[in-house]
Amino acid sequence: MRSNPTTVPRVLIVMGVSGSGKTEVGQRLASKLTGHFFDADAFHPPENIAKMSQGVPLTDADRIPWLEAMRTRVIDACPPGETCVLACSALKRHYREYLRATRPASVHFIFLDGSYDIIFARMQERTDHFMREEMLRSQFASLEAPGNEEAIQVSIAAPVDEVVTRALENLKIGDQR
Predict the structure, then answer these.
(1) Which domain, by its residues, includes 151?
(2) Which backbone phi and psi does 136 adopt, to 5 degrees?
């Protein structure tokens, strides 16, 4: 990918509870926008993964090094003129504020909104992920859903291709380039 140093980077954070489709939607968005894709799970320290694998929800203190790693290695490192897409739960408003703090004009959230029943059904089909279904309730309890002024909201009830299309339609593609 070529970078134009006179333009700002665009960082898209695809957010929502576990099982909402962040990784799949994020990968497809990055592909369509010729961007770089990152999965927030790759930034968890081993201690966090061990806790979640045992069904223990993370505390805000557990999340600080995780948030810091994503902000440093994805958001702050996104080159000028390029797009970086990060799949990240970003459940609480202060997590989103932290992630956006160093590049407020460049960071945009896409909230994958879905019901507990739809997401629980999806999670029962997953076998390759450390997040356990029983933790889904704690994710919904922690979720501080963003308003329209904070994030693009897209229902996940539709097929993935339609979710990606709706997200792209709601992005102001030319504004940050």
Answers:
(1) 10-170
(2) -60, -40
E strand or H helix at 125, and its extent? Answer: helix 116-125
Domain total of the chain: 1
Question: Is 154 part of a structural domain of the chain?
Answer: yes
Residues in CB range of 17: below 8 A, 6 or more apart: 89, 91, 114, 119, 136, 139, 140, 143
Does 118 fall in a domain? yes
Classify 153 as helix, strand or coil: strand
Determine how many CB atoms are found less than 10 A away from the CB of residue 31: 12
Q: What is the pLDDT of residues 25-58, one digit of tens each?
A: 999 999 999 999 999 999 999 999 898 888 787 8
Q: Which residues contact 168 (CB under 8 A, 6 or more apart)?
A: 29, 32, 33
Provide the CATH number for the domain around residue 112.
3.40.50.300
Is residue 139 a part of any domain in this protein?
yes
In a domain, 82, yes or no: yes
Phi-psi region of 135 (alpha: psi -120 to 50; beta: other; left: phi over 0): alpha
- Written as one letter, the residue type at 57 is P
With 0.85 as the threshold, say if the pTM is over it.
Answer: yes
